[in-house]
Amino acid sequence: MRRAQVGLRKILFLFLFVSVGMVALIWTAGNNASHGQATTTAAESLAAWDKIATVVEHPRCLNCHQVDSPLQGDSARLHVPLVVRGDDNMGVTGMRCTNCHSQTGNNPTSGVPGAPGWSLAPLEQNWQGVASGDICRQMLDPARNGNMNAEQLVHHFAEDELVGWGWNPGPGREAIPMPRAELTDHVKTWLAGGGACPQ
Amino acid sequence: MITLTINGKEQQLDVDPEMPLLWALRDHLNLTGTKFGCGAAQCGAFTVHIDGEAARSCSTMVGDAEGREIVTIEGLSGKVAEAVQAAWQKLDVVQCGYCQSGQIMSAITLLSANEKPTDEDINASMEGNICRCGTYVRIRDAIHEAAKALA
Amino acid sequence: MLIQNSQAIAPSRRSFLKGAGLSTSVFVLGSFVPFGRFAAAEGEAAAPAPAAAVFDPNMFLRIGSDDSVVVLCKHLEMGQGVSTGLATLVAEELDADWSKVGFDFAPNNPKVYNNLFFGSYIGTGGSTSMANSWNQMRQVGAAARAMFVAAAAKQWNVPAAEITVANAVLAHASGKSARFGELVEAAMQETVPTAVTLKDPKDWKYIGQPLPRLDSKGKTTGTATFAIDFRRPGMLTALVRRAPQFGATVKSIDDSDARKIKGVVDVVQIPSGIAVLANDTWAAMRGRDALKITWDNSLAETRSSDALVAEYRDLAATPGIVAANRGDAALGLGKASQSYEAEFTFPFLAHAPMEPLNCTIELTPDGAEIWAGSQFQSIDDYAVGQVLGVTPDKIRIHTLLGGGSFGRRANPMADWAVEAAQIAKAIGGKAPVHLLWTREDDIKGGYYRPMALHKVKAGVDEAGRIAGWQHTIVSKSIMIGTALEPMTVKDGVDATSVEGVSDTPYGIENLAVHVHNAKTAIPVLWWRSVGHSHTAHVMETTMDELAHLAGQDPLAFRLSYLKEGSRDAAVLKHVAEKAKWGQEMPKGMGRGIAYHMSFGSRVAMVAEVSVEAGALKVNRVIAAVDCGVAINPDVIAAQVEGAIGFALSAVLRNRVTFAEGVVEQGNFDDYEPTRIKEMPAVEVHVVPSAEAPTGIGEPGLPPLAPAIGNAVFAATGKRLRSLPFDLELLA
């Protein structure tokens, strides 16, 4: 359903250098019906980002956006057993993500979570100890966001199965408290307003 | 019916696809060399090879293992496996021995991917295999010994 | 009557096994019981030999016509190498060919297979396996050898004294020779000697050598059968849902959903909880998850760990039961020029052997058969007999390999065996039952190393000598309330609460040791090295602190309290030399020393640590060990290496804690054993000794924690006392 709605919209992408050395992705929506307004202001965009940031910093997301090793659980402890990134963000031989984590879903018996694409986020997408504004700018930068354009970014938040695991994490783990549709709306607002980022 | 390829042989199993591979092996196929240690992918006693990687059978659903190449300790073959088992015996690594099937399965994947692992490589790859008897000094030595034999 | 290296032996049974399914002749040697010491067994040994049968429960040795030698192992092999060790003793005196030697587990006949240190009980524990079998197993080998020699002497018509035996081959200068296998039938006709002369140690070929373990191959190929691997036709797997709090009982149960799970066969109530029986393990797990139980907590332990510690602390401030008193500690302390007072706390600890507890039981018309990693067969058969209303001799235990134990499989309450029997009884014996504990059951299931709190007041005088030492220990007694109480508790003092302190080899003139037996429903049990697992740490940390107060070198300070020329002093000096004690360490690194005697064995350790940015790393541990004659130095080294690996997790992080009586840990993620990256390099030096062998399964554990703590102090000047170490103090 959401995919269809996105598809109906007329979308225009515009890439601008907004500051020294920084690439930002700006989204304008000529006719953003879902928000009932012609334009989204930078202030609205920034406010939307702040909402997004609460999700980004939730353990369901943050635990795997780490430098060397993922964290685990609501307490965000270091992953036990310790795993390290490896060449492909999937661990090293003997300790690869998929050795324990299913690519199809959570394991109800072992309690080990799983989803398609289960892995550590690429190093350039580390969010641990990174300021909200820097995460924001990283997310907008195709060189550091997995080469996603705005549409793909919205799709990532709205449809990606690994991201979706955040709302279906299995017993003993808190689901992301904000409904996914609401998050997706914030992403759209954020991008529609120029992808504003805090300093 | 689920069809699993285990140790080169196709096996038909009438089990729920969510059943952990561990229990399919141990309770339905009587392949008891693969052990139950924690049931939560923490200890590695249940390590088997799936498509050559050291998979944790307690956390692998039978349905996910369908159509893939599963090898258990009972089905090991090849020069890496032989070298690892010989090194384990030469250095008398085992004590209670319960974790050692899993240790050996992990060591084989390590040496298959890395001919000359350093202590750091061993630490990283063998992290998932607990030995409560504390035989780690010899596990480390045996992996180096096997690497030497394979060189 | 006895001469050196010669032991009298009683006449024994033997039988000649032929036919009845065996295609080859087998020489079977009966039990050998040294005269005088174990009178209870003599009557049995003198009884007439039974008719030839395939199964003879009264034997230690089988030799086949193919030269194979099978030693019946009366101890549980749970990793310590006892099967190899016992076989070594037999093979040595038999002059067997090691490549043909194997072992099998003995049945549970206490008249033959009792632990000679445990009276009439069969059991493995207290690091006694090699020590109690040292003479017995050598006599078995020597007697069998004598019978082969006698048989050959007759056949060849030569004097027995002229026959040599090497590698299972008998030979005579005339050129005649024969293998054991060729003489099996003739040897069986010989009279069992009533006395044998054991070899002079200089003639030992196997004792003292690093013979390869007999169980390595099976354990590296997946073919070894642990108890959990055993199967009976029609066997059901049983899992038990036990109360979250110790002492709670089932109030009500709704099992309707559990019974709907495919594969679930039955749900029964037993005293410890509700058992779900199913056709396979996974069904039993899911069935158990579907149970709806309400618990009656009226008698349950509902306190939290903090409250327990506070209670222990209050108790420690009051006088306890006197466990030891040397000189006058209070008077001595009054004369101290510098004194020291400290508290050490130790948490409950789970054994967490890699093979979860399990037991297969099948009821028989007159009793039951059990297949398990049974460690105290004489307790397990008694306890199961009690459940089934039969005598222990009607319970036949087939001992199988134990995937670790560390004390857990030997329980005076026989909890796991009793549960299995209760379940089998509850289903009327309609199927064999395999009771399995999951890891969560194990971590949450009790029988922990008891929590302990030590309070020490000690001081040194002007001369730097220990003026007085007052030591109070608060711990729940392991033995009180069990069948072993009469043997181990004297005047309210459970030896296992105070061992290592009350009997310290240090010549402390004014020492007072008090103990409080704390009360809690949390079940406790011996855990590898028992009381020494906490007492050694307090003793050796305190000795280090006093050395520091006295301005003396920790090694010299210790040596000044040990007898010159003693084995204790020798071990300490040995480790110091090997570790280059006294050499400077780089900044941020430290070396610590500790010494402890337990189970008759002396172990000294030097730990080398580094503390960088608040992170502790144990880099190397050097150990020196005197456990008497080193029957197999490689197994000894392995046991010390392993004890270090085992102990390290208790030093670094392991603890079982309670929140309102509920165990807060549940699996290896929050009760995480040592992993390979943390394992230090280990050097084990075995000090040569001609003394009778003592234990090695446990003694490697106690000195580790204080050696590390003392090394941390050397590196940082910071004292870590309680276990596990509060590593945040290093930040």
Spatial separation of the terminal alpha carbons of chain C: 67 Å
Radius of gyration of chain B: 15 Å
What structural category characterises the helix and strand content of chain B? alpha+beta
Q: Could you say what the CATH architecture of the largest domain in chain B is? A: Roll
Explain briefly what this protein structure is:
The complex is a heterotrimer of chains A (199), B (151) and C (731). Chain A is of the alpha+beta class and 199 residues long. Chain A is built from eight helices and six strands, in the order αββααββββααααα.
Task: Describe the secondary-structure layout.
The complex is a heterotrimer of chains A (199), B (151) and C (731).
Chain A: H1 2-8, E1 12-19, E2 22-28, H2 42-56, H3 59-62, E3 71-72, E4 77-78, E5 91-92, E6 95-96, H4 97-100, H5 132-140, H6 150-159, H7 161-164, H8 180-192
Antiparallel strand pairs in A: 1-2, 3-4, 5-6
Chain B: E1 2-6, E2 9-13, H1 21-28, E3 47-50, E4 53-56, H2 62-65, E5 69-71, H3 79-90, H4 100-113, H5 119-126, H6 136-150
Parallel strand pairs in B: 1-5
Antiparallel strand pairs in B: 1-2, 3-4, 3-5
Helix pairs in contact in B: 3-4, 3-6, 4-5
Chain C: E1 6-8, E2 14-19, E3 22-30, H1 39-46, E4 59-64, E5 69-73, H2 82-94, E6 101-105, H3 110-113, H4 129-156, E7 164-166, E8 169-171, E9 177-179, H5 180-188, E10 195-197, H6 216-221, E11 236-242, E12 249-254, H7 256-260, E13 264-270, E14 273-278, H8 281-289, E15 292-296, H9 305-316, E16 321-326, H10 329-334, E17 338-346, E18 358-364, E19 367-372, H11 377-388, E20 395-399, H12 415-426, E21 433-436, H13 439-444, E22 452-460, E23 466-475, H14 485-488, E24 489-490, E25 493-494, H15 495-498, E26 511-517, H16 532-549, H17 554-559, H18 567-578, E27 589-598, E28 601-612, E29 615-626, H19 633-652, E30 658-659, E31 662-663, E32 681-686, H20 704-716
Parallel strand pairs in C: 5-6, 11-21, 19-20, 23-26, 29-32
Antiparallel strand pairs in C: 1-10, 2-3, 3-4, 4-5, 7-8, 8-9, 11-14, 12-15, 13-14, 16-26, 17-22, 18-19, 18-21, 22-23, 24-25, 27-28, 28-29, 30-31
